[in-house]
Each structure stands twice: as C-alpha cells, then as structure tokens.
Amino acid sequence: MAQDCIFCKIVAGEIPSKQVYRDDLVTAFHDINPVAPVHVLIVPNEHILSVAAVKPEHEPLLGHMFTVARQIAEELGVAESGFRLVVNTGSDGGQDVYHLHMHLLGGKRLGRLG
Ligand code: 5GP
Ligand code: ZN
Q1: 6-106 topology per CATH
Q2: Is 16 in the pocket of ligand 1 (CB under 6 A)?
Q3: Would you place residue 64 in the very low, low, confident or very high pLDDT band (cuts 50, 70, 90)?
Q4: pTM exceeding 0.85
C-alpha cells in the first residue's frame, strides 16, 4: 500500500466507498463524482501508478480488469446498451489519481472523444 494514496485506502477499507465488486486482484466501486448514470472505477488491489508503469507481469491483472468490467456492465444493466472503458494516463491524459484505474461509463449516450 502506498502512503497517502486514496485508492489504496479505499482498497484497504480505510476510506468508505460504494463497492460493487471485489476479489484477490481488483476492487470496483462507484465514482464519487459520476459523469454518467453508471460510473464505476475498477482498480488493482496492488498500487500501480498508471499505465506508464505497467510491466509484462501485470498482464494477467490487466486482462482480469476487462473481464470484471464486462461482468459489472452486465450486473448494472449496460452490457447491451453499451459502455465505455477509459484509462486516463498522466498529465495530458487527465489522470488525477495516481493509482491505476479503469472508468466504466454507461447508461446514457456518451459523446465522441477528442
Ligand atoms: P482520473 O481523473 O484520475 O482518471 O479519475 C479519478 C476519479 O476518481 C475521478 O472520477 C474522481 O471523481 C474519483 N475519485 C476521487 N476521489 C474519490 C474517492 O474518494 N472516492 C471515490 N469513490 N471516487 C473518487
Ligand atoms: Zn494506491
């Protein structure tokens, strides 16, 4: 666990969150400031700074994040209507929290990116 990392604290249960999924590798919870009717964050339980810090040994974890995203999308009723997975990376990528996370957004028609 990284000191002063908000998502490490959520994973450890030190900061409350509206959790939707948890297993040995990942934790998923509702974003505190949702930008869509469905806005869930899927985070590794392990502290990884960002996509810029991923290594080949993280590949099973990274693949698992997609499987969990699909499962949560089904449970929250957006698998058929569609959803978007976003991983902001670094300053230009708009990353605010430096603990790798995947946004799962859905429940409305999302605008084009860029
Ligand atoms: P980023 O901009 O780094 O891709 O996304 C960070 C996300 O984390 C933002 O959407 C923000 O609303 C969310 N967030 C920040 N702090 C908290 C928190 O304490 N709890 C929850 N549930 N979400 C948070
Ligand atoms: Zn962390």
Answers
A1: HIT family, subunit A (3.30.428)
A2: no
A3: very high
A4: yes
